[in-house]
Amino acid sequence: MFTLTVRDHMMIAHSLPDPFFGPAQSLHGATFAVETTWARPVLDEHGVVMDIGVASELLSRVLDGLRYRNLDEHPDFTGRLSTTEVVAQYVAERLAARAAGIAGLERLTVTLRENPDAWASYTLELPVLSERGGPAPR
Ligand SMILES: Nc1nc2c(c(=O)[nH]1)N=C([C@H](O)[C@H](O)COP(=O)(O)OP(=O)(O)OP(=O)(O)O)CN2
């Protein structure tokens, strides 16, 4: 399996209103480094998983919807704890939707690094499209 990873970062504010999270129940800020790893078993006709510029742009556009936001007030997180894991899933699902037309991609992993010693990831299996646009056999 080939993989391509690009990275960006975002600042958000949020609270985790559950006693499980101790002091993080209060409103606090976080700067997440966000990595996206795209995977495919066969390289495309250019010998790449996908263009790095395209991968970077996709990630940036998705993060633009979250940057400098208080996730407690973000409609997509209403009634949900915006843990690192949940935000990783959110980013992955939006990226997958934006990349739906790109052929050959099989898997996407989004990793959010809270700090140098702690991170969480979410992996999505993607519906594989053939180079002609239809479903491809796995
Ligand atoms: N699995 C997760 N655990 C925690 C998350 C998370 O998103 N996923 N988030 C937090 C807090 O938001 C914050 O990032 C850290 O808060 P803190 O109280 O410092 O948490 P720690 O667990 O590192 O330290 P404690 O000794 O438990 O206070 C927390 N956990």
UniProtKB/TrEMBL annotation:
GO MF entry, a single one: 6-carboxytetrahydropterin synthase activity
InterPro entries in alphabetical order: 6-PTP_synth/QueD, 6-PTP_synth/QueD_sf
Pfam family name, one: PTPS
Organism lineage: Bacteria, Bacillati, Actinomycetota, Actinomycetes, Micrococcales
Keywords associated with the record: Lyase, Metal-binding, Zinc
Protein name (Swiss-Prot/TrEMBL): 6-carboxy-5,6,7,8-tetrahydropterin synthase
Keyword Nucleotidyltransferase: no
Pathway: Purine metabolism; 7-cyano-7-deazaguanine biosynthesis
EC number: 4.1.2.50
Family designation: Belongs to the PTPS family. QueD subfamily.
PANTHER family xref list: 6-PYRUVOYL TETRAHYDROBIOPTERIN SYNTHASE, PYRUVOYL TETRAHYDROBIOPTERIN SYNTHASE
